[in-house]
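Long-time lurker, finally posting.

We've been working with Peroxidase (Lupinus luteus) and I want a structural starting point before designing mutants. I don't trust myself to interpret raw outputs, so I'm hoping someone here can both generate the structure tokens and explain anything notable. Sequence follows.
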Amino acid sequence: MSYIGVTVAALCCVVVVFGGLTLSSDAQLDTSFYKKSCPKVHSIVREVVRNVSKKDPRMLASLIRLHFHDCFVLGCDASVLLNNTDTPTKIESEQEAFPNINSLRGLDVVNQIKTAVENACPGVVSCADILTLAAEISSVLGGGPDWKVPLGRRDGVTANRTLANINLPSPFSNLDQLKDRFTAQGLNTNDLVALSGAHTFGRARCTFITNRLYNFSNSGQPDPTLDTSYLQQLRGECPNGGNGNNLVNFDLTTPNTIDNNYYSNLQVKKGLLQSDQELFSTTGADTISLVNTFASNQDAFFASFKASMIKMGNIGVITGNNGEIRKQCNFINKKSAELDLASVASKESSQEGMVSSF
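Top reply, 14 upvotes:
Generated this for you. Predicted structure of Peroxidase:
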């Protein structure tokens, strides 16, 4: 789900470099962008997310992760939602990139939201803004902080699977690798530690912790940064040679709630992913003091988390007359016209785990 601090100055302009491709954002976003054109958009999104989460509490973490995986590739332009297409232009879906395949959840929920919003305000609200609103609402419904979401993003007209494979952090990343991924998006160390706190809820697949439990770095031994009692618990849930698709809670104490227990877990060597524990167990790392601060002060975590979410949501945004407002979130408008369908169901993953570092 499967990384998510600091000041509201995060709303400033951001220039992001994606492997040779530079995206510049004027950040022409406004929290009251839809005040006249779609005044009930927030309540519409909230109603759909609230109803879905009643049946599937994990969906809140999945929607935050979906927003993260969108913004780290081509900016926050809803490119992650686009399906494979050959005409009128070829699009290779980011959903099939390694960090996303068989793991992205919430695609159908976004389509439900889009349908409800289109019924109220046709052709007005972008899929990119829907993703951003759904992430903020998921935070609130999960017990986390709220914030006024800057709006006015427009949707991109392409996707980039290659960049998804390059830009998204891995659950096996060391601290330097994590910092590199975040720096490439204009995010700093505080953002890295704050946004990682999204692992306070949600689940991960056993396949992404098996090496930590049985053969860390091909040593034939478990990861030495893993608490021994927690190791035995995880081995019970993820037996060697067992089903790699079995799911394990990120937070062993409050798995469905956004709180600061994620950081307390790191302090006692109970971070689930290697990339989680790296924040605290890397000798001499500047992330250690941040983990300690957030572990002892939930208000400080919440303040940084929401500031970093705003900052992340500003990466590479498309505004003004650029891009488009997609009629269907899974296809650019030219494709939607070609299909001539009122709605097209997205390809929801058959697996529901967390693959990448969010």
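Before you design anything, note these points.
The radius of gyration is 19 Å.
Strands lie at 14-18, 21-25, 203-205, 247-249.
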